[in-house]
Amino acid sequence: MKGHCLKIAPAGRCGSLALALVVAAGLCAPVGSVALAQDGAAAAQAEKKPVKSVMDLPRHTYTIEGKASEFLLTDAPFKAFVSEVKKNTEQTLAEYDITDKTTMKGMLGLLQAIAIFEGRTDDALAITPKLRELEDKEGVKLMTGEALAARIEAKAASSGDDAAYIEAFKQNLAKRIGALPWEKVREEVKQTRSTALIMSRDLVLGQLQAGLDPVVDQNNGEVSGDMVTGLIRMRVMLDHQLPVMPALAEVYGDLIDKNEKKVTVEDKWTPNLVTLNSGDKASPVVVAVWDSGVDTAIFEPKQQLWTNAKEVAGNGKDDDNNGFVDDVHGIAFDLRGNYVPELLHSVMEMRNDKALDVKHTKGLMALRAAIDSPEANALRQYMSTLKAAQVEGFLEDLGLYGNYSHGTHVAGIAAEGNPFARVLTARITFDYKSIPQVTPSSEQAKKDAAAAEATIEYFKKAGVRVVNMSWGGSVKDIEGALEMKGVGDSPEARAKLAREIFDIGKTAL
Fold it and tell me: What is the Cα Rg of the chain in Å?
């Protein structure tokens, strides 16, 4: 179960960043691998098999001809693929009763993407109210489908004139979003604009070349629906959404300029800040940061580090005979679950200069928070110049720098304003490659589980009171990684093995 909140391309998600950015833009609903169960009589519904999550649904495989990044742009082969996906989803919806909201939103999104691809705009629009019913976040609920409706209306009114289409789209979108309560949609508008400014054809194709082309080749063209049904949405984005993104960004920028000066945002952070003084009557408390590693040199001058007084730093020996060499300020495990003394992830494999990734990591964080900053603008400009072949290296570097910096970032928050905090580092090593470096297996899961158990025991002996864990994982992540590495002769076999692997870690924790 490895992954953390700065990871760019989680295992098992083709075109992860590209798809994630489109989701954030609200330009189309989330895509799943199955379709929404259609309304039917109560008797028919009662006969359907109950389903609590996507894991309970049947799995399908599809054959991709050649490279996925090239197949995406074909005509007849891609249409045949969409037709097959549609047939399978219709069969699934006829047999299963799906109650999980997240799964249902994914299924609706797939149906909507198929309808848009096939030119059935009325069917696509009809799905919007159902998506809204499933959405809990008010801002997202209000904005769901508005850009799609504005686009369809503009296309109908423009009579094939591209300039007229863009102008009509801008007017329709401004009217629709402008009519919504700004205090409820402001964050979604800002997030969507940030995403629209960064998306490009090369970004999408570059992610496919890095994350899906090798998988298709590894599996001789046969890939699971989880891997490839997202291609339908990508095709819709390339054909229908990318052309209007500059206009969408312009409209949303105007709305932000118009409305933000009227908004008074309540500061909920500052009143909750607490700063302690070293002279206060208090005792040190050990705070474990179980993350990607910590640069302990930052905290040493402030004496905010937990220190193992029985260990001699840098002598290559286990001075206190606890099983760990040079564990002066904590412990670390590498990508394969082996103990290593280095508490900070190396950046030696970085392809670009570290300063570039520092700058663009700040920009990425600002974009995710919908903050206009010099770093965010620099990231937008830089990514707009990337060619498809450059995307993989850049995104993997961001992932690697995330591994290098994230734990220190977390530790800084934990120790801020508290001279009594004593940070103990427990490093996990996260993968940052588009294709996983380590093949998931029960043996590897047992090593990772043993490392987790050893870490928890270490916390106990060190008197840890607080642990921060910015990481997680899922069965679907493991299933996707297995497919990426060519393991398993069927989706069902991978699903079974993924569950076994996941349960090893879950049980250990």
Answer: 25
